[in-house]
What does this fold into?
Amino acid sequence: MTLLSVKNLRVTFDTETGPVEAVRGVSFDLNRERLGIVGESGSGKTMTGRAVLRLIRPPGRIEADSMTFDGQDLMKASEPQLRALRGRRIAMVMQDPKFSLNPVMKVGSQLMEGLRQRDHASRSEARAKALSALEAVQIRDPERVMDAYPHELSGGMGQRVMIAMMLIPDPDLLIADEPTSALDVTVQAEVLSILDNLVKTRGMGLIFISHDLRLVARFCDRVLVMYKGKIVEELAAKDLLHAKHPYTQGLLNCLPRIGGSREALPALDRTASWAR
It folds into this structure.
């Protein structure tokens, strides 16, 4: 059974100069697999992920022919029904832990907050689950991290804390928005290994939002390429480096190569037909 089905999704923002469409007619299905969404900044990747959780607020509007998660109609769901899904069954890892974690709360308090408020767990039970989640994302000294403030953690450690926070309720779908941006190659590989293991062992569906085409080609099962709010190409991740669409080819040509030419990287030669 399809875990998530999105048909003709549109996200529109009302501005002083008129409506602006950030997502235009996006359609895809997701099973328990790793689906990558790639494109330039502003192409609509994050807006698509947030729209699945119905996190777009006025002046933004979400419209879709249908958007269902595990048989439940997300477009018709009430706010209490959506709150029951968010975090518990659908979780989202935001891009930068520096801006997503509360700087004045210790990590442990943030990890336990949902368990205490949503699940009415005792403090000892919540702490045990939080420690277990930190161990699951390969944090070596979870007790120390529980008592630390976010600014005391490295970027990679903060990203692992964000992943742990989203995984505590054991969601069926994880939306990871640039989970490895600004991380060094070693830490990036460790975070990807954690996500890969969780998909395989928990049977989770994963939407992996990124601008790193080589990373997505190596890590994901399928890829959606977005341009100006639309999907211009969908293909198997293993075929991404041999994509047919000129926009995807242009993105690939803009990537620097070790040992390659020292000449200036080519710019995208865009055509109006890509955005239609």
Summary: The first strand starts at residue 4 and ends at 15. Residues 7 and 65 are 6 Å apart (CA to CA). DSSP finds ten helices and eleven strands in the chain. The radius of gyration is 19 Å.
